[in-house]
Amino acid sequence: QVQLVESGGGSVQEGGSLRLSCAASGYTYSRGYMAWFRQAPGKEREAVAGVYYSGLTQYVDSVKGRFTASRDNLKNTLYLQMTSLKPEDTAMYYCAAQGRLISGFWTSEVRYDYWGQGTQVTVSS
Question: Given this model, what pLDDT does residue 30 score?
Answer without folding.
Answer: 73
